[in-house]
Amino acid sequence: MKSIVGLKVALALSLACLSLSQAMAQPASSGAAPAPYPVSRVTLVTHSSPGGGTDVFLRDLGKYLPTVMKAGFAVENIRGGSGAKAIANVAKAAPDGSMFYGTTPTYIQTTLLSKPTVGYDGLDPMLIVFIDPEVIFTRAESSFKSLQDVMTHAKNNPGKSRWGSSNPASLERIGMEKLARAGGVKVPIVSHEGGADQMIGVLNGTYDIGIGEIQELQGQLEAGKIRLLATLSEKRLSGIPQLQTAKEQGFDVVIRKFRGIAAPKGLPDSVAKTWEDAVRKVLEIPAYKAEYTKDSLTPMLLGREAARKFTAEVAAETAASFKEMGLTK
Q1: Do 35-131+257-325 and 134-231 have matching folds?
Q2: Can you name the residues that pair with 302 across neighbouring β-strands?
Q3: Which residues contact 284 (CB under 8 A, 6 or more apart)?
Q4: What is the pLDDT of residues 65-116, one digit of tens each?
């Protein structure tokens, strides 16, 4: 009798140990089963071209969201009107959690400058996720080793310098205009719909320099095709401490860029909260944290109400800057 009882106890202990070892073997990021979501498929829209900063941001986020949200995620690139076409497309979508827009300051600037039928205020800010620093870059074969080299070349070779940038209403374009004024040079600044198109012009020597985020430049940096000349952040980037700021090089230009998510108006608070909770969890996944840290993205998660307030403040600041620059009355 004792042997049978002992056998049962031993068997129970063995099963318990097996269950514990199986649980410990699970990936740290798997956690519990993904929470149910109102729809099975979610489209994340951007005006950026494939490979552009917002495109990469949405694709990376969409890759990890299914671990905490039971839905499939796809990115749709809708080009045209410096973002106006993409904004209008999302604004008319059903507010059921099936479609969102990847926000950057561009959607505010496009509205203020172009006054499209549907502007940034036609969408409802839902989340602010990251602050994304802008950097100035050139092709690896270039003779430019600093911003001062670029400015000297522009001054000594009038009419021969050209700089690349994103669309006319973008923060990148404003950053380049400010940089030209800070350097006391007059240089044609050529706009593009997205960062990938601009990159081609820098790589083939059409442009002396370009502007973008580490996220969209990472592939070319790793391949040794481009060289960074400066960051337009307030301080040096923790991941690239050797890269000087523009201010350190004598050019007082600082650009702050955010990345977030906006929804069609009328989205239920419960869906917005589901997103906030999900993104908060995703930001803690080690693999994703390694990716966005490598891209020099700084998490700044703001929920719905905070995102609305933040967006309104940025819009007011941008409107004031445009008046100072003479772009609007």
Answers
A1: yes
A2: 128
A3: none
A4: 999 999 999 999 999 887 899 999 999 999 999 999 999 998 998 899 888 9
Per-residue model confidence as pLDDT tens digits over 4-60: 434 343 434 444 443 333 333 333 444 567 777 999 999 999 998 898 889 999 999
Place of tokens 């099936």: 98
Give the Å distances, CA to CA, from 116 to 3, 122, 197, 251, 326: 83, 10, 24, 34, 20
Q: How far apart are CA 155 and CA 148, in angstroms?
A: 11
* Residue 155, amino acid: K
The secondary structure of 31-58, three-state, reads CCCCEEEEEEEEEEEECCCCCCHHHHHH
Instruction: Tell me the sheet residues that pair with 42.
Output: 73
HSE of 105, CA atoms in CB hemisphere, 13 A: 25
Residue 163's alpha-carbon distances to 22, 144, 250, in angstroms, are 56, 13, 19
Measured CA to CA, the distance from residue 249 to residue 326 in angstroms comes to 26
pLDDT of 157 strictly over 70 = yes
Task: Tell me the CATH number of domain 134-231, given options 3.90.1150.200, 3.40.190.10, 3.40.50.970, 3.40.710.10.
Answer: 3.40.190.10
What are the extents of the domains in the chain? Answer: 35-131+257-325, 134-231
- Rounded CA-CA distance 188/207 in Å is 10
Length of the chain (residues): 329
CB-facing half-sphere around the CA of 42: CA atoms within 13 A? 27
Does residue 56 come out as left (phi exceeding 0), alpha (psi in the -120 to 50 range) or beta?
alpha
Pick from 174, 201, 211, 208: which is nearest to 318 by CA?
A: 174
**pTM to 2 decimal places:** 0.71
Scanning 235-285, the segments in alpha helix (DSSP H) are 269-282
Measured CA to CA, the distance from residue 105 to residue 207 in angstroms comes to 24
- How far is CA 307 from each of CA 42, 200, 304, rounded to the nearest angstrom? 21, 34, 5
